[in-house]
Structures are given as C-alpha cells and as structure tokens.
Amino acid sequence: MVQTQISPSSTSALEGKFSKEQLAWLDKAKAFANSVSLQEVIASDKDNVFRRDLFEKACQPEWGLGGLPFPSTYGGSAGDYVSFSLVNEEFGRRCVPIMSSLGVHVLSQEPIYRFGNEEQKQKYLVPSSSGKMLAAFGLTEPNAGSDTAAIETTAKIDSNGDYLLNGTKTFITSGASADYYIVMARLLDSAEQSTAASEKAAETGKAKRPGQITAFIVERNFEGFAIGQKFDMLGMRGYSTCEIVFNDCKVPKANLLGQHGEGRKVALSSLAKGRVTIAAQSIGWAQGALDACLDTLQKHYRDGAITADANGMAGKLGDLAVQIEAARVLTFQAARLIDANEQSVTVAAMAKTMASDVAMRVSTEVMSILGMDGMKPELLIERIFRDAKAGQIYEGTNQIQRMLIARDLLK
After folding, report:
1. Would you say 109 and 181 are in contact if contact means Cβ atoms under 8 Å apart?
2. Is residue 54 within 8 Å of 97, Cβ to Cβ?
3. CATH number for the domain that contains residue 308
4. Residue 316 contacts residue 290 (beta carbons within 8 Å)
5. Angle formed by the axes of helices 313-339 and 345-370, nearest 10°
6. Which residue range is the domain that position 307 belongs to?
7. 232-276 tens-digit pLDDT
8. How confident is the model at residue 194 (pLDDT cuts 50, 70, 90)?
C-alpha cells in the first residue's frame, strides 16, 4: 500500500514504494507531460478539440501508453495497473489533453482482451495499442446512465445471422473520433421483435424490459451508424464527447463480443477497472490544484505578504494534503488488487468515490483560498474544478457507487 505522497517533480522519494518498472512508467508520463506546452493544455480546454496527434504519439513504441496493461502478444506494453494508475495521476495533475481518451481507450480494450476471441484480439487490440485505432465505450443512454438494467438500445438477428442495432448512446468520450465502440444492447428474440409484443408489454406495465443485454464491437463505418449531437460541456472538454446513433446499424456476427446475455458482465468487469483509472486521474487533479495553490502562496510567503497560519490557512492546507494522501492510498490499493487478480468492485467504487470527491473539495477550497488568482487559466485550478465535477458523475455517479458499497456491506 502506498504510504507517501507522489512527488510532482521526481521519483526518487518513491523508491521502495514502487518497483523500478512502475517508476519507469511514471518517468515516461512526466516526460510526455513535459512535451505538451501549457498553451496546448489551455487550448484543448478552450477550443474543445480532440488532439488525435497527441493520442497517436502516446501510443508509439517510444511511449507505449496505448496498450500499457496488455501483453506484448497483442501489441501491448505488458505493464500493470499500478503503472497505468501512476500515468493517469500524472496526466491528471498536468491536465494532459488526451488523459480521459487514453483511459477510455484502455477501458474499451479490456472487454476484448477478456471476452473476445483470438480473431477479435488480433483485429482490434494490436492496432489499438499502436494508435492506429481509437476505441470508445458505448453504455450511457439518454434514459440509462449508471443503471445498466435500463438500457433501451436493441439488437435483433437478421436473416443472415448478423445483428441490427437501434438506439442512441450519449456522452460518449472520444465518440466523434473513435474508430470502434464497445456497445451494449438488448438482444431481442423473435417474439420480442414483433410490434404487437412490445405494445402488449407496454399496456400491461411490464417493468422488466425484454431482451438479454449483449455486447458488440461496432465500427464507425458500419452501415446505419452515425455521429449525433456533439457536446460543448462545462468540463472534460477536448474529448470529442457526443452521441452515437444506431439506425438499423448492421453489425456482422463476427463482432458479437462474448456470448448472448453477457453484456452486463462485460460492462461491469471493465468499468470496475475504469473506476480505478478515474480515481487515479482524480488524485492527479487534486494534487495539481494543491500544487498550484502552494506555488502561489509560497511566493507571497517569501515576500512576507502572508504568514503560514493566515486566516487558519495552515490547517486548511494540511487537511487537504491528508485527504489527497488518503485517497491515493485507497486508489493504489485497488490497483494492486487488480494486479494480484483479486479485483474488488467494492474497493474500486470506494476509490473512485473518495478520490473524485476529494478532487472536487480540494479544487473548490484552493480557489477560495486564492481568490481571483485561482481563476487564472495558467494555474489550471479552475479547469480542474470543472473536470472534477465530471469525475463525480461519469462511469457511475458517486451516489450509485455508495449504493454498490452499501449492498456489499449488507450481503
């Protein structure tokens, strides 16, 4: 378990806490972040444009971030989730423009690695690791967010044994730029495909929606696929977030992922790892906001303009540091459980909830401490504040995470 604060400037203080291989990935993350100028970071947020060039650069062999936790057999870097968490914390701290897209890219490869057949792994994982393909995850819908049981997108089998998908997914990170998507839909049987059966279910107030939730790999060039509304959001900008629409979208039978009815298992097993990634990003946000606050205050402190305990500031700063470190320990505990093949959905939910709440709390507090200085774009604090709010919401709201934790406690 991690017992020291991750230094934003060097890895020397972490020796003995992480392996040499893990620290090497952290050094790579720092070097990549240093290659992106502050002006580029600010522009990615202001202009809301996805940097595909930076994503492809991160996936090149020099950096190896496109398939970090996957084996070299499929073009991956054979790293572990602790290493990937270190990368995501550093990217979050520096607001690297591809942070969320890279996290979703790895999240979307996970179900192919775990549930895909060999042909699918070779077709999608290898080019994904090298950056030739960008992946996205299609779960959230206009009427189905954290509740996977509420999915309304449907799939039916046509006369050739292929699948026809109908429905809309929304708030899809990398949606407008991705080359393929992991999509969850309700597979209807022949009886459920009839309009009469659907109308009868509606008339009787049938609570349970028909169809087995099933996973598919959908390419953007498939017939019947379209990019819908693009979002100009408060936070998490620059990630091509949009709707994706299926209108009798024809998906070959070869693109069925796993078995019929395994969609929820495919989604939830991947999301558990994705929540650890979000936790790591959130720690980075929190640490980045605190670092910027301390840098600004230290200048005033050296000038004698303020004292260390001005307006109880020392206590506030100390409390923020404690909260960040506590979230960091929990997050890396969750990452280490994944690497030990002891993945815990509950611990992942705890880490995501605590870390994103801490990021929101820290960014809010440091803006209050700094006043108008905290609103300066070059400090990145106000951007972190906006992104952290999204962190509390996406990949399962923190309210849902608390329900999952409580259910586990009550078993």
Report:
1. no
2. yes
3. 1.20.140.10
4. no
5. 160
6. 265-410
7. 999 999 999 999 999 999 999 999 999 999 999 998 888 889 999
8. low
* Domain end point (choices 264, 279, 297): 264
Q: Is residue 61 part of a domain?
A: yes
In sign, the C-alpha dihedral spanning 341, 331, 360, 372 is negative
Residue 14 contacts by C-beta under 8 Å, 6 or more apart in sequence?
4, 6, 7, 23, 26
- How many C-beta atoms surround the C-beta of residue 23 within 10 A? 17
User: Which residues neighbour 229 within 8 Å (Cβ) at sequence distance 6 or greater?
Assistant: 170, 242, 243
Q: Facing residues of 252 across strands?
A: none
Q: What is the pLDDT of residues 152-179, one digit of tens each?
A: 999 999 999 999 999 999 999 999 999 9
Task: Tell whether 1 is covered by a domain.
Answer: no
| Residue among 165, 154, 189, 168 nearest 253 (CA) | 165
What is the distance between the alpha carbons of residues 111 and 114, in angstroms, rounded to a whole number? 5
Lookup: tokens for 27: 């050094």
Number of domains the chain contains = 3
Give the relative orientation of helices 20-34 and 81-94 as an angle to the nearest 10 degrees. 30
CA distance 56 to 33: 14
CB 26 within 8 A of CB 335: no
In a domain, 6, yes or no: no
395 is catalytic: yes
How far apart CA 256 and CA 253 sit, in angstroms, is 6
Q: Of the residues 110, 141, 262, 395, which is catalytic?
A: 395
Do 254 and 312 share a domain, yes or no? no
Q: Domain boundary at 240, 264, 288, which?
A: 264
Query: Do residues 286 and 392 touch, judged by C-beta distance below 8 A?
Result: no
User: What long-range pairs does 65-68 form, CB within 8 A, spacing at least 24?
Assistant: 65/28, 65/29, 65/32, 65/102, 66/102, 66/105, 66/106, 66/128, 66/129, 66/130, 66/131, 67/106, 67/109, 67/125, 67/128, 67/129, 68/25, 68/106
Instruction: Enumerate residues 6+ apart whose C-beta is below 8 A from 72.
Output: 78
pTM for the whole structure: 0.91
Q: What is the mean pLDDT of the chain?
A: 90
Q: Which of the four pLDDT bands, split at 50, 70 and 90, describes residue 411?
A: confident
